[in-house]
Amino acid sequence: MKYLIRSIKYFFYFSILTTLIVVALVLIGAVEGGIENIFTDGYNSLWKIAVFFVIVAAVYPKFGFVRRKLETAADWQTVRYKALEYFSTKPFKIESETADSVSFRRRNIVEKITKMGEDRITLVRTDEGYFLEGLRKDVYLYASGIEHSLPRENEE
């Protein structure tokens, strides 16, 4: 269900962003107003663009969101403490915490809006290890930062 909601959000995000760009181009006089003048096939182009956005929005959440394992030999309390310490220096705050997970959200409302509310990063403890989940760029960036302060799996 989360995947479907993300796809719908991104469809509207791409549609609104494209509309704003086209309106800006009309307002600055870069193109003449009217759908028939802006696009080669006029109104028929809108359907083609919409189909393209549907395809991109359907695929984007698969590649845009990841779950990355933290390579560490540390116990949960150490990983949790280091993550809390690390995220306290970043533009994040704790959203929620359970026995097996800690969820962080961005503090800045503008960043939340630009990420369409998909600004959550979650640290999860499983039988396989510790994982960071969220937007690909954020997960890889912050996972590296947390791992840097933790002992590696091959260290004793």
Low-pLDDT parts are none
Query: What structural category do the secondary elements indicate?
Result: alpha+beta
* Sheet of most strands: 5 strands, antiparallel
Number of strands: 5
Helix share bin: 40-55%
Lateral strand order in the biggest sheet: 1-5-4-3-2
Q: What's the overall average pLDDT, rounded?
A: 90
Query: What is the H/E order?
Result: HHHEHEEHEEH
Overall, the morphology is: elongated
Question: How are the SSEs placed, and which strands pair?
Answer:
Layout (H helix, E strand, L loop, with lengths): L1 H26 L7 H4 L4 H22 E6 L5 H13 L3 E6 L3 E6 L2 H6 L6 E6 L2 E7 H13 L8
Antiparallel strand pairs: 1-5, 2-3, 3-4, 4-5
Helix pairs in contact: 1-3
Keyphrases for this structure?
single chain; 156 residues; alpha+beta; 54% helix
Structure write-up:
The chain is α+β, with helices and mostly antiparallel strands. The chain has helices at 2-27, 35-38, 43-64, 76-88, 109-114, 136-148; strands at 65-70, 92-97, 101-106, 121-126, 129-135. Strands 1-5-4-3-2 form a 5-stranded antiparallel β-sheet. The model has no long low-confidence stretch (mean pLDDT 90). The chain is built from 6 helices and 5 strands. It is elongated and about 65 Å long.
